[in-house]
Amino acid sequence: MKTVAAFDRLGEENAFAVLARAAALQASGRDIINLGIGQPDFKTPAHIVEAAVKALRDGQHGYTPANGLQATREAVVRRTLTTTGVEVPADRVMIMPGGKPTMFAAIIMFGEPGAEILYPDPGFPIYRSMIDYTGATAVPVPIREENGFAFSAEETLSLITDRTRLLIINSPANPTGGVTPRAEIEKLVAGLEKFPGVAILSDEIYDVMTYDGETHTSLLTFPEIRDRLIVLNGWSKTWAMTGWRMGWSIWPDGLYDNVRKLAVNCWSCVNAPSQFAGVSAIDGPQDEVDAMIASFDRRRRLVTEKLEGVKGVSCILPKGAFYAFANIRDTGWKSRKLASALLEETGVATVGGPDFGTLGEGYIRLSCAASDDDIAAAIERIDRFLNPA
Fold first, then answer.
1. Is 118 within 8 Å of 200 (Cβ atoms)?
2. Its pTM surpasses 0.85
3. Any idea where the Aminotransferase class I/classII large domain is (predicted)?
């Protein structure tokens, strides 16, 4: 049956294909170490789970407002004030079923044939997929290893044309772990004054995951662009709640009702128990979050230290998130073929760099969301595969 052409342009997130293949191999009896999927290997803290259970027992079984419960939106307001120093109105906060719906909403608002949308490359694959779906032209913003995997404000601004409708940025970043310094973001914001018609989607889902004295700079701290800024955030990474499908976004006045109506048409609302859990996550103790981030800090060092001992592989120390983007150019392998061979022949799941953009060739992504022992064992297997005795 023939569908409209737009569906033929939809891409995928190959990390889920890797997860499925790894699970199949494991079910067949293979010993698999999964450094592929981008989710914390910690459980959701117990007090958050209990908040959802209590909500269910209290009868919170019905529809919620399309933009989210007032209490959940107010919790996001409190959290945003704590992390950025900016107090946003609760009626500009949208509670979403994960982070991707914010990408979906923002990109379809601005994407159409003839328009251009700038996105990071390498970057989260859904950016490019959704841009292609709308028929807009996807314009990659190069994210370069020699720049510490931070974006360049000068290079980004040079790519803006009179057809540019939306700029997507992500820091701390997936898949590279790069963190763009505040000085570079300030240059970008100053340069954007020349382009008042360009909206900005700032993906800040890894905002608390920075290391070595780096700090996250939210674009909310620049009042001069708030009237065209969409901020994406959520519960998945910070509170180990990937399967809960809980995200939030902050929208300017002129776009908020559009996304609310889109919610009504697409997903109606976010389920009530998860929203009560979300309030508990924000307002409850953060010691388990701190412990998780400390573990990722230690593991990113372990990953990079071990990889530096593998002939043909190099890896700069990531400054944020929980990924390492390893350079494998000197091995002679293409990225996807190496990632596939590592999984099939050594039982180590990784994701090839081109799954995050054309500039990802020559790299593989390793998630630091695994135990120290598993990380050490996985990299030992990679070394034996690439450099047999």
1. no
2. yes
3. 31-382
| pLDDT on residue 37 | 82
Mean pLDDT estimate for the chain: 96
Distance (Å, rounded) from C-alpha 95 to C-alpha 79?
14
Positive or negative CA dihedral for 175, 176, 181, 186?
Answer: negative
For 59-75, the pLDDT digits (tens) are 999 999 999 999 999 99
Domains of the chain: 5-44+287-386 (3.90.1150.10), 47-283 (3.40.640.10)
The amino acid present at 288, given as its one-letter code, is E
pLDDT per position as a tens digit, 18-39: 889 989 999 999 999 999 988 8
- Name the nearest CA neighbour of 219 among 182, 247, 166: 182
Q: Is 282 exposed, middle or buried (0-12, 13-18, 19+ CB in 10 A)?
A: buried
* Euclidean distance between CA atoms 358 and 121, whole angstroms: 7
